[in-house]
Amino acid sequence: IGKVVDRGRQVDPYWNNRFVFAFHPHATHFTCTPDDLIPIPNSVPTKLGVLFPSMETALALVMDGAPMVGECVVVFGQGVIGLLTCELLARFPLQTLLTIDRYKLRREISCALGAQASFDPEDLNSINEMSPKGTDLSFELSGSPEALNQAINMTGYSGRVIIGSWYGTKRIELELGGHFHRSHISLISSQVSTISPGIRGRWDKQRRYALAWDLLIDSQASPLITQYIPFHKAEDAYQMLDQHPESAIQIVFSYSTS
Hints:
- This protein has 258 residues and is an alpha/beta fold.
- The chain has nine helices and eleven strands.
- It has a six-stranded parallel sheet, with helices on both faces. A three-stranded antiparallel sheet has the order 1-2-3, with no helix packed on it.
- The chain is globular, with a radius of gyration of 20 Å.
């Protein structure tokens, strides 16, 4: 996010000094067209603007999951996407909302955002006790291939598993015998660029953008931003994520305009 500091003669004065979001590589300054910019609504705290694409992703995940009243839901992975997904799911009248993450800080924020309980991946037996018939809806957002098998095994008869993780080149060995084969479980790929065809005609990109901003207005997501690091110290940020991921969630680069 940044502020428009200058404009061309034929550009609408509307853009003067406006805070905006852009899908653009990290930089202190850049030149673009107005079509490349998304104005941040005045009602949205400026610092939360950096969470806009993550909120849009969480919204797409929940839309693809289509949670129903009274369902038992579990979310694997409580990074930025998982935590925002948890926050959105907490607004539904679910029977149970559980989350899983290996880091204590993320589990604590998860509960603050509405999860009834959050567990370490080594403590999945506790979730089985809370949901003996399995979950109705499971989200795999951890980025860990092993978690997909865990999500499948935890999902009950005719349940859905929403796969939002990007595994890249990681290979996955799925256990599709036994429980999965007998249980009619649906594996649903979810990616923010498009949503389920059944609602895509009514929910175009602009409508989803507008809703994502509205959701940020009411969001309790400020604790997700755990560090502000000057852009010229970007190496420190990546070292922290690599060596001490337990201490960071959303790191934000700050820029000097001098």
